[in-house]
Every structure is written in C-alpha cells, then in structure tokens.
Write a structure and sequence with these properties.
By secondary structure, the protein is of the alpha/beta class. 32% of the residues lie in helices and 26% in strands. Strand 8 (167-171), helix 5 and strand 9 (199-204) form a beta-alpha-beta unit. The longest helix is centred in the last third of the chain and has 18 residues, at 179-196.
C-alpha cells in the first residue's frame, strides 16, 4: 500500500491561502513562524495540518480565522479577503473555553449571538438541535462543572456548529482527552462532517489522528513553518483509528515527515 502524494486539487477552493508569511518579534529576537505558505481547501473537504510543535500550524489557523494577521500574503474565503473574525469561520480550540456560569444550553446559545435576527425561542431550538447532534440532549440544563472532559468538548463543538459556519477550524481539540474518549469523538466528528457537509481545517501533531479524520494530510516542517508535502487519504468512512490499514498510512506519512525534519521525536504516530 502506497500513500498517494497530492499534487493538484482541481476542485474549486472554498478557502485559499496565498503565500502567507508571519514573523513574531520578541524582546530578544524575531521568530519566523510561517514562510510563504499556500494552501487550497475545497468546499466540504476535511484537511488536517500535521507537524511538530512550533511549526506554525496554529498560527496559520488563527490567520485563517481572522484572529491574527499575516505580514505577507492573503487568505480568501469564497474569493473574498479575510480581514478579521467572521461567523462563516468558527474556531474550536484545545481548551473548551466554556462559560462556567452558564448551563449547557446557554453556552451553545451564546455562539448564536453572531447570528442577528433570531428570537430567544429560535436560539433555544437551534441549541437543542445541535446538542442532539452531539449526543448531549439529556444534559441540556446541566452545569459545565458536572460534565466530563469529552462532554465539554461536545458542548464546544455544538457551540461552534450552531451559527452554521461555512468553515470549521479545529486546533487540536482532542489532545487533552483520554484515548477512549478521543476514539468516540473521532466517530462523532466524522458523522457530523458527513451529515452537515462542513469544510474543516484540523490542526494536530498526531499523524494517526490526521489519517483517521482527513481527506488530505498536509505536512509542515518548522523554523520557519513551511508545507513540505501533502497526502490524499483513500480510505472508506467511517474510519477506525486502530485499523491495520490506517496504521500503515500513518507509518508512511510519519516517515515522510521525519525525513523533512532536522530532528525527530516530536511527531507521534
């Protein structure tokens, strides 16, 4: 089995990242985080960005979200420049960032403030729909402190989905969870992606996770962050992260990534 290296994406782009360069200046030195990074993401595509810590994956995600700005280059969503945050691009972070003084439903409803014109009843109905989608309808009125880590991430996912964004940006959302909870969420996110037809850009340092979830895996090398290779994942869904075939994909991609790095050991299979 050989992983197919992705050379050309002929599907029209939902998201276009053009030659993004980003530098951070500290009191001691300048950090070159991203160097002329270009990426095309088709509508409905699930793309995973993989690389070691410090390779600029999260920085790129923040620029796509409009939470940060590039020194050079541009990001286009549906052909229009991204100049700041917008309800068409929602972000789900590693930390759930839920409001502990609000219950589950109110946390999901909070995201709907980005959609003006809805009545309070309509917001509750939307929240109810997405809580059912993530399997938490029975916990609609629970306090956040009563939930497990995996349940909190489901609430965060429902909150991100509730405004019905065109693009969902996910920054290592499952990294802090135990293995069994992660596996369950892998199935959930694949089902939701299929049913809701979202365009997803997913940041991870875990190659096997990327192979489990992504249509395409994009490899980053660090210092400065650059895209070094891309792979198309030709596996049927839903995917089991423990399958032998998936592990073979992950092993080949990990070897490819390590070959681009000066040092290895920061990338997990």
């Amino acid at each position: 089995m050989t992983v197919q290296t992705e050379l050309v994406n002929e599907t029209p782009s939902k998201l276009s990242v053009g030659a993004i360069t980003k530098r951070f200046r500290t009191s001691r030195r300048e950090v070159h985080a991203l160097d002329r990074v270009s990426l095309e993401v088709a509508e409905g595509e699930f793309v995973c960005l993989v690389g070691p810590s410090g390779c600029g994956k999260s920085t790129l995600l923040n620029i796509i979200a409009g939470l940060d700005f590039a020194d050079e280059g541009a990001v286009l969503c549906d052909g229009k420049p991204v100049s700041g945050p917008g309800r068409q691009r929602m972000v789900m972070f590693q930390e759930h960032a839920l409001f502990p003084w609000l219950d589950v439903t109110d946390n999901v409803m909070f995201g709907l403030k980005l959609k003006p014109g809805l009545t309070n009843h309509e917001r509750k109905e939307v929240a109810k729909f997405y809580l059912k989608l993530v399997g938490l309808e029975k916990f609609a009125h629970s306090s956040i402190h009563e939930l497990s880590g995996g349940m909190k991430q489901r609430v965060a996912l429902a909150r991100a989905l509730a405004p019905n964004p065109r693009i969902l940006l996910m920054d290592e959302p499952f990294a802090a969870l135990d293995a069994l909870t992660r596996e369950q969420l892998y199935g959930d996110i694949q089902r939701i992606w299929r049913d809701r037809k979202k365009t997803i850009v997913f940041v991870t340092h875990n190659v096997r996770e990327a192979v489990c979830l992504g249509d395409r895996v994009v490899l980053f090398s660090p210092h400065p962050g650059r895209i070094c290779e891309e792979f198309r994942i030709d596996l049927p869904r839903p995917r089991d992260i423990n399958s032998v075939t998936l592990a073979q994909y992950a092993t080949q991609i990990t070897k490819a990534l390590k070959s681009h790095l000066k040092t290895d050991g920061e990338v997990s299979e």
